[in-house]
């Protein structure tokens, strides 16, 4: 795992949190733009970790060795979990979770890379060794599973949940992890980006974006998708 700790986000609360969950996201931007957003105090957003397409891991807010600070990644969020044989509602996931951003322009239409999965599984293995609250498979969630009511739909349809659980929680079963974005909506998104000349390099897995497209194009597409999903829910 290629760990990069030279850049730290200023967007965090100086509060050590108990870690009960990991929340997975996609960036809707390339690595450079993602780091710019997390390093900008005016955005008021961050995640603990960013995993680039080549597998490089950026620790933006301290978490890998313990004493995790509160990052600003989940926003208004909630989920139900099993505790003592009962279903309990947990709200405000920033207060009890580590946020991991996977660099992907839209995880509902673009696959994640082998290097990203390798690094993600290594990161989760390390985090499980540090935080006892991550011992069970229910502790790993997508942003869509805690903020789907706000239209959040990451890490998306292309993320391989079954693979994650078979590697990181073998023999412990797989919680229900249904993507919020429908196949129909994903197809429409793919049609839009293809019409703009965006594609995936078959040899490298890189997402190829023609020059001249707006830098925030995929952020805008994600926002439009979230708005539509919020109206549907």
- Helical stretch count? 6
Chain-averaged pLDDT: 93
Largest sheet: 6 strands, mixed
Helix percent reads 25-40%
Say which CATH homologous superfamily is assigned: Peptidoglycan recognition protein-like
Class based on secondary structure composition and strand pairing: alpha/beta
Notes on the structure:
The chain is built from six helices and twelve strands. The strands form four sheets. Strands 1-5-4-9-3-10 form a six-stranded mixed β-sheet. Strands 2-6 form a two-stranded antiparallel sheet. The chain has a two-stranded antiparallel ribbon with strand order 7-8. It has helices spanning 31-39, 114-130, 143-147, 161-168, 183-195, 217-232, and strands at residues 3-4, 12-16, 21-26, 49-51, 57-59, 69-71, 78-83, 86-91, 97-102, 140-142, 199-200, 207-208. By secondary structure, it is of the alpha/beta class. It has one domain (3-232): 3-Layer(aba) Sandwich (Lysozyme-like), CATH 3.40.80. The protein is globular, with a radius of gyration of 17 Å. The longest helix has 17 residues, at 114-130. β11 and β12 (207-208) form a beta hairpin.
């Amino acid at each position: 795992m290629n760990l990069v700790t030279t850049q730290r986000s200023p967007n965090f609360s100086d509060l050590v949190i108990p870690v009960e969950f990991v929340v997975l996201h996609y960036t809707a931007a390339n690595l450079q733009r993602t780091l710019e957003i997390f390093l900008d105090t005016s955005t008021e957003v961050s995640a603990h970790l960013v995993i680039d397409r080549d597998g490089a891991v950026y620790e933006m807010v301290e978490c890998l060795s313990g004493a995790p600070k509160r990052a600003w990644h989940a926003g208004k969020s909630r989920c139900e979990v099993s505790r003592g044989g009962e279903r309990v509602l947990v709200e405000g996931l920033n207060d009890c979770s580590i946020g991991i951003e996977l660099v992907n322009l839209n995880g509902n239409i673009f696959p994640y890379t082998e290097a990203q999965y390798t690094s993600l599984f290594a990161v989760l293995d390390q985090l499980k060794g540090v935080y006892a609250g991550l011992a069970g498979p229910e502790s790993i969630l997508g942003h869509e599973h805690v903020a789907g009511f706000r239209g959040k739909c990451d890490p998306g349809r292309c993320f391989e949940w079954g693979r994650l659980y078979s590697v990181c929680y073998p023999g412990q079963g797989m919680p229900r992890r249904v993507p919020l974005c429908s196949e129909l909506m994903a197809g429409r998104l793919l049609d839009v980006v293809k019409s703009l000349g965006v594609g995936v390099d078959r040899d490298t897995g890189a997402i190829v974006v023609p020059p001249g497209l707006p830098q925030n194009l995929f952020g805008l597409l994600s926002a439009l998708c979230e708005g539509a999903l919020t109206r549907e829910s």
